[in-house]
Write a structure and sequence with these properties.
By secondary structure, the chain is mainly alpha-helical. It has one domain (50-196). The protein is 37% helix and 9% strand. It contains four helices and five strands. The chain has helices at residues 17-68, 75-79, 91-102, 187-191; strands at 129-132, 135-138, 153-155, 171-174, 195-196. The strands form two sheets. It has a three-stranded antiparallel sheet. The chain has a two-stranded antiparallel sheet with strand order 1-2. A hairpin with a 2-residue loop joins strand 1 (129-132) and strand 2.
Length: 198
């Protein structure tokens, strides 16, 4: 039997560069799919939470009206209409909504000793409340590009005959962390992505 002197010796088996590149590519694709899926799931969870919180706030508003004969309002809620798309414009109306529904007289959720009747229940806990501008307000669950907390939009403009809205009682909405339409979309297309009570 003649042996070929040029045959390879039996050394330890290893990966070729091509095999390593294929494995790295597969890992990168799987990581990208996982990150995209996590972002989608996180967005759906935030949206579901906002829907539940708007339903809870709506129930609190109805209880408040049953006791007081009117919905919480002041000049900020009378002037605000849901055609203003940037949440920074909702702070004053959000502060009115929070203070009147939570009964928080000093606008500080950490000091419950001064509170009157709380219509919000556990929703008024400090983790759900942010402070800024006109006082404390209920924050929606979406992150804001600027890092600030987003207040829920709340308007009684149509209910008090001082403007146009969507409901004859009150309008309540979240812009889902967005601050305006993405060009070239219309305001109506932007508003269609909101979580709202109309």
């Amino acid at each position: 039997m003649i042996r070929n002197s040029s045959s390879r010796t039996n050394g330890p088996a290893g990966f070729t560069i091509l095999e390593l590149l294929i494995v790295i590519t597969i890992i990168a694709v799987l990581a990208g799919l996982t990150i995209a899926t996590m972002g989608y799931v996180s967005g759906k969870a935030r949206r579901s939470r906002a829907e539940a919180e708007i339903a809870a706030i709506s129930a609190a508003l109805e209880n408040y009206k049953a006791d007081n004969g009117v919905y919480p309002s002041d000049t900020a809620t009378d002037a605000l209409v849901p055609t203003i798309g940037d949440p920074k414009n909702y702070v004053d109306a959000g502060a009115t909504l929070y203070q009147q529904l939570s009964g928080d007289q000093d606008k500080n959720p950490s000091t419950p000793g001064d509170d009157t009747k709380n219509y919000l229940g556990a929703l008024a806990k400090p983790a759900n409340v942010a402070t800024g501008g006109g006082g404390s307000y209920l924050r929606d669950p979406f992150p804001n590009p600027t890092g600030a907390a987003n207040p829920y939009g709340y308007s009684t403009a149509q209910a008090n005959g001082k403007g146009t809205g969507y409901n004859p009682t009150y309008d309540l909405w979240s812009t889902c962390g967005e601050t305006g339409p993405k060009p070239p979309e219309t305001f109506q297309q932007y508003q269609a992505r909101w979580v709202k009570n109309w």
